[in-house]
Structures are given as C-alpha cells and as structure tokens.
Amino acid sequence: MGRNWLETIFNGVITSLRNNPFRTAYLARPNNPPITYTWLGPDILAPPVDIPVVEILTAVGLIISETSRPPANATPLQWCLPLLSMYGKWCATLCDELATYQATCAKPTSVAMHWLWKGHPHPIEEYLLGSCIAGNTANQNGQWIRGLCYHFRKERIMRRLWDFGNEIAPEIAANPKTCFIDWGHCAETYPFYLLALADGAQKGFVYGKAMRCAPGIGDLDGYDSAQAMTECRGPCPNCQKYIDELGGLQENFLPDYWGETN
What we know:
39% of the residues lie in helices and 13% in strands. With 262 residues, the chain is an alpha+beta fold.
C-alpha cells in the first residue's frame, strides 16, 4: 500500500478530530479503559498479542505498522527511513491540529521504528512505529493526563515486556536530582514489543532507530532527504538496558547502522 493511501488514513484522522473538537489527545481517563490493539507479531504460528493503547500518536503508529507493508525487495534505507520520517511529520501535524482545539499542544521530541530483517535478499518481515508522549495541553488537566500516560506506559507496557522490579531507570539513577526520564518515556516503548516477542533466532535481526521529531524531522521538507538521516539517534541508557534484557544486539540500534552491507 502506497504513501497516498497512508495519507488518506491521516486525512481521515484529521477529519475525525475536526468533527469532534472536544476529543482529547489522550484516552487515559479513570473510567475509560484503554483501546486494545491486536497485533499478529513476528511469529505467524504464535497467537496474536493484545496491546493496550491510550495515546493517539501511538495508535496512529500501530495502524500504519499494520496496514502498510513494505515491498518484497525493500531495504531499511529505502523503506524504514522515509516511513519513520513521514510518521514523525504526521505526529507533528496532528499536534498542530489538536492545538486548534486545545490552545496549546506538546509535540513529540522523538519517534521510533523497530523492524525485523534478515538481510538481502529477504524482505522486511515486520515493524512497529512509536512516539514518545505528546499531545497534552499545557494546563493543569493536560499535565494530569500526561502523568496518567507516563504511569500507564511504565507499568502496563514496559513492566510487561521486562519486569524491572524496583530497579531505577539508568537515566534517573545517573542524575537523580534533575532527570525525569523513567521507564516508558521513550519513543521506543511500543516498538520494543517486536524485540520482546521475537524468538531466539530472530532477535539478532531486529533493528531500531529513533528520530528527533520536534525540533527535527517535523521541520524538514522531505520525507527521505539526507537531512532525515542526521536526525536519527541511538538508544538512551534506559533503552540500552531493555535491548540487553530482551536479547537484542546493541549495534543494531546505532543511528548509522541499518544492517545493509552494500
């Protein structure tokens, strides 16, 4: 399915928001359960996995991940880089649209994509997109919703993928007085499902990239320009810990390594 079709989905989301200006950027309310997204996962023989979602940007990323499949001969640089760039621009535009109803709306600082690829001549078998938390208003209610989402991502997503017990996130442990980047704050939160559910033989073929969004790819003109590559970044200490615990290879998540040898 091509980019035009994906843009139709995006326009549908925008239309929905315009038709319902009272819709919040988040669904995390005390009496409102999360949306359940059923993901087939990397193993076609394994049962589907139910992924709970409470954020619109995450929901859009999962919809794209499920409905847009890469061509059989696509490589990560040909497919993953422009798709991640496009997703980042969409997230920034969605937040601009939400801001017309909420006065202010925080844009995501980063987006991420993880994919499963065994190299040439194999196709990209599976991928997941995700965003850091964004979309909340700057008022007190918006900050309250943001806090609910942080707690949800930490306890319902990250702890489910790897139970960190009482371990303090490395980012906070290194700067306990000034840092607030806890488990689940990063754009890689939902994409980590791919590494977690990959079997032992697949884990070495899971790759990932995070990209600066605002400021970053959201300010660029092209989806796959050379500048987009400069917005890619490596995993933070929190994400490095999860890569190790989930059995991944750190080198596969470096900003300049895409698994292509030619």
